[in-house]
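Q: I have two molecules that I believe assemble together. Could you output structure tokens for the complex as a whole instead of separate predictions?
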Amino acid sequence: MDYLKDEELEKNGLIKEIDTLSIINKASEIKEKKMTKLYILTFIVLIITAVIGQIIFIKLFGINKKIIIGIGIYIIASVGILLQFFEKGEEYTC
Amino acid sequence: MRGGKSLDEKELLHKARNGNRHCLNLLLQNNYKILYGFLIKLTGDIDLAEDLLQETILKASMNIEKFRGDSKFSSYLIKISLNIYKNHMRKNNRVIYDSDVIQNISYNGEMEMINALKFKEALEHLQSMPYEKRVSFILKHYYGYSIEEISNIFNVAEGTTKSRLHNTMKKLKKLLV
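A: Yes, here they are, computed for all two components at once.
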């Protein structure tokens, strides 16, 4: 059974060199595509809830300065949170 | 090859989990040959082993954040590859064994040809074993995994792994006599 040891497999050329970095890059591309879809979906939900929220508030309390400021804060905070996901950086050395 | 996880692996893993591709690449470079050898022994098919290896690396790279580092990185890769292999077998619903595997080895003299035949024979013996017994035997015999580590991979009691290994050794001894 020692004929199947990794050293023997390597000696016989059965264990080849693999470009792992290109596979990692492919994995990153797939992940990025998935994340982009998720961001778009999140952004759509954000816009819809903001619009519905505005309509409800305006119907309940009418248009006043406080509500406009509140909606503004909500949109800025939501966009800020979204941007944090995009800005997640990467180290280039190891 | 054996022993506890080195600090280097932990550091690399930490950086890889934080999105550092180069550290992940180093981790994979340090471990993929173990996985490659394991898959060749598991499948008995060089081409299938390479396909499974590439798929395993892809999945491991995509899910590296989920790996908590409570086992060796090679164990993590082996676990993923076993799932991929099982799915592959389910889809194909048959045991694939490449009887021409020997043709992939170049041999010049008589001695090398004998070695190649013995290699093929050893591979055939492995393929004749049931899946769990085969994996347990490969991990224990070729990679020095402990009973505990093998049991964790299969989520079974240590007694089950011991019994599997004992039966496999008994069968192999009979075959090799």
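A: One point stands out. Chain A has three helices and no strands.
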